Amino acid sequence: METANAVVFNCPECGHLVKEELKGQDAQALLYKEESVPKAIADTLVDSVVYCPNCGDRFKVEIDTHAHTVPLFLRKD
Ligand SMILES: [Zn+2]
Hints:
By secondary structure, the chain is mainly β.
């Protein structure tokens, strides 16, 4: 049985873990945490609406520009 890839979000209201399945992906049952989502996947999710089944609130997916970790690289000067 194939299970879709998904991103797991932490509901900011109630703390419930919300699993958002990814469409149009090879179903490999991969789970990404919200703080470490590959950019190609993040780009497909930004601005989409996620519904928390626990508290009933809806949230829009945004990129966390205040994340504690960011990718750095060395570019030739
Ligand atoms: Zn919630």
